[in-house]
Amino acid sequence: MRIVGTLEIVFSKALPMEAKDDIEKVIEYLNNDYLKKGTKDPNEAANIESFEIGEDRLIIKLNTGSKVRIDEASLRIRNVLSSILGRNYKIGVRNLKLTEPKILLDGIISVSISLPFIKKVYSEERRTIVELNDLFESDLKKPIFLRLLRLIEEKEKRYRWGGKAEHWILLKNSSTKPVLFYEDPNKILEEIGWIKRTSIGQWIYTPPLTHLLNSLKELFLDEVIKPLGFEEAIFPKMYPLEVGLKTGHLKGVINSMVFASLPKSYNISEFEPLIDYMTVMDEAPPKELQKYVEPPSYFLCFAQCEPFYWFFENEILDDNLLPVKWYDMSGPSFRWEAGGIHGIERIIEFHRIEVVWLGKPEQVIDIRNRLLEKYEYFLDKVLDLEWRLAWVTPWFYEHSGIVEEKIEIDIDRPGTVDIEVWLPYKGSREENKNWLEVGNISIHGTKFTQSFRIKHNKDETLWTGCSGFGSERWLIALLAQKGFDPSSWPKKYLEYVKRKPFPKSISTITYPKTKEGREALHQIDTKMRV
Amino acid sequence: MRIVGTLEIVFSKALPMEAKDDIEKVIEYLNNDYLKKGTKDPNEAANIESFEIGEDRLIIKLNTGSKVRIDEASLRIRNVLSSILGRNYKIGVRNLKLTEPKILLDGIISVSISLPFIKKVYSEERRTIVELNDLFESDLKKPIFLRLLRLIEEKEKRYRWGGKAEHWILLKNSSTKPVLFYEDPNKILEEIGWIKRTSIGQWIYTPPLTHLLNSLKELFLDEVIKPLGFEEAIFPKMYPLEVGLKTGHLKGVINSMVFASLPKSYNISEFEPLIDYMTVMDEAPPKELQKYVEPPSYFLCFAQCEPFYWFFENEILDDNLLPVKWYDMSGPSFRWEAGGIHGIERIIEFHRIEVVWLGKPEQVIDIRNRLLEKYEYFLDKVLDLEWRLAWVTPWFYEHSGIVEEKIEIDIDRPGTVDIEVWLPYKGSREENKNWLEVGNISIHGTKFTQSFRIKHNKDETLWTGCSGFGSERWLIALLAQKGFDPSSWPKKYLEYVKRKPFPKSISTITYPKTKEGREALHQIDTKMRV
């Protein structure tokens, strides 16, 4: 990346001859020394290519890299000149203007021209040229310019990185286990009516499925979460947009988010035309409704851990408190999925036990390690599943729209471990597509403590971690490997299921829908009651 | 209400003299007999005021009431004429047109002029006149016309009824009990940091408060819900608008609902200008965002029972299944409140155990009665609260935008019982404003079985019922009367709280915020651990 432009400095009065000599010396010093400071690579620093001294002004052609950027270079030049000319001749800087600034990028990159300061974007010979409007001193001091350059830098990196968005490195896997079942549990659950689809990717779970889910969640809490000292909290499930800016989700996964809007008025009489229309036409037209609601100012629970960082926003913590270990299971998450929705395996509205922690780096890593151990025990010994763990692109890098250039396994650095279980109904265990991600464990480094400004009283570094247990997916994974005969279920899980009487299935004239479904329900329901 | 208009019937050919005589007789029969059928009040029936027989047509001036309405009258006239003229002269009806139809209403009523068929609305001398466009046969046959008249009728009733929207009749109350505490538990909970406000009417509950809430929910389930055989289900928490049309909420409480929208595209590159803007400006502008999302096609969980009726939509049930008794506690409800938001007593996002049932009327009434008994036991014996029960305007009448004209206590008819608890911190028990509604029990009659077309295989009538247990409000009510010293708490509740170790409070450099808060936390936290 190169940044070029012409810096025009207007002084408070005409320059005497001696001042012109001084300026030449200053420019030499700047070019050889001060404009090179801050990077070891002179290419990434700033360079004065030429200059011209006028009666009361100085015109400088600048060409800079990405470390000492043109804005920083302009301000350094201004400061040095103002200090020397002020001291020697009582001359000040009246005006600073960067004309025709241009950013020259390798590769073809799309940058939105609706951005402030951007005049024109075009490409020639595999380069993208971003022309900016003229910038004044106040513009150069704004972080907006810095963020704009960061955005472009990121896009440039992403361009060079290409489409290699998927990284997956096997960490560990279980032994292969005898296959008991080859059917799709999603299909069976719908056929026997334990679940009923209400809308795209949304379902009602009847009491039998609710009971199986609850039993699995309780078992997970008892075996994994509670022994490690995590305590339950209740997090809201709708967040102002600003929270999504801070977590990065609004930048990284905005296409999968569901947004919420408030009514424009609390006075119901203002809705009368719409209510009249709905009453007479018996339909609710979204476009009409939109006129009565505010633009979306919230998004629905996406990662479920958002409120944890939000809770500690701007707080100063001390050692007595740390580490904090909480979990939340108080409501659903929403993830819009355009394709690939399937049963309760891949859904729009789903349920998760979200485990979160906060502490010093060594505490956060230690908790992650202990959690990982427990997960392995839970997968292998408690549920007896065929599983594997993988090191994947740190999710928050993806989710925040930032892309890292390389991936390496360093378990003590921020990153994510995916937990996957084989689904025999999908096909051979050799193919990746036949494995289901049921959860993950991440440590985020300072990503969230920084953006939510969570501080330590002795300025020590604070990290966070989170882990999501996708309830529906764990149950599907279990049923996919073990089937619907409880005698094949892991002993401990069966014990939890048997703690309470098995709930009634819904069976009546038109439900389940098909004769096959009703027969299958009868068989499965009978086995549950043995 | 009067409806007037001119009906023009064009026949398939010119009328012979004899036919004109027949028509005169037919009109006499219609006016004295057929147009009066369907109501005992001749004023509410239809009347032919005058008529004129042309060469091939008949022009009739009609004036009708609200029982045999002008559309129905027009079709009756058409049918009789077509049958007689067809038989005697092979003459058919070629065309039917109602010109200049007008609805004359008592009182000043606002009707949206954007409604289809409406030409003009104006008022004169305390009457409202609704002029419709000319209507043809196909219009007269549409239910839209019927619904329009119903809408106007309802508005007319509401106008006459005035603002008397609140009905409240005491059913039963507890004895007065000794007052232990006069402080506002909401204030204390925030001060000691057990809850933290994140956004308008939304809070994060830390583990100590979560534990108190969970203990109360468990106690309620064990004492009230499970002994009556209710089983847990999991309901979605976001519903398509059509569901709100069927429950009536979209018409009755649209001003308190939160709406949800999906992204327009699943392709993240289409969001690039917005993402670039958010990255550079570090803000998420709702108006910009709105351009990238669809108009709202969902609403967030409002009454929490919606999915229950939705589940049984279009199903045919038999006696073996009935009654169905479920509850859901899988996530939050959202209710936009413009004013009066206070602590966790009145909030935007809240948690509820929603109890629902479905059966024949006697089953539904019986379940309601048993539930009411258990509630009373729970309030009085288990929690030892000062409480009262009130019969209120059937909520669904209010909620669906329909207003009933009188209220009477007939406990076996559809209606709602409110459960209220006194909040000593608000003031004297004599004043209504110092009582908090913590829940209610409703039976809906056929309201939902009708709109969701839930049928019985032998065509017997099916009713539904629901009851909401507002978790936060019950806890606030308990703390408001008993305070924060567990030794004053009801024995059974304390037993549930003591089942698990009391969770850690958050106490660190900047949290709780004030010195008083930190001291109060220390005192309360210590008592919890005794």
From TrEMBL, chains A, B:
Q: Which domain of life is it from?
A: Archaea
What is this enzyme's class at the first EC digit? ligase
Fetch the InterPro entries from UniProt. aa-tRNA-synt_IIb, aa-tRNA-synth_II, aa-tRNA-synth_II/BPL/LPL, SerS_tRNA-bd
EC code(s) of this entry: 6.1.1.11
One Gene Ontology term from the biological process aspect of the record: tRNA aminoacylation for protein translation
- Keywords, comma-separated and alphabetical: Aminoacyl-tRNA synthetase, ATP-binding, Ligase, Nucleotide-binding
Which segments constitute the Aminoacyl-transfer RNA synthetases class-II family profile domain? 331-486
Q: Which GO terms describe its molecular function?
A: ATP binding; serine-tRNA ligase activity
Note the PROSITE patterns from the entry.
AA_TRNA_LIGASE_II
Q: What is this protein called?
A: Serine--tRNA ligase
- Identify the species of origin: Ignisphaera aggregans
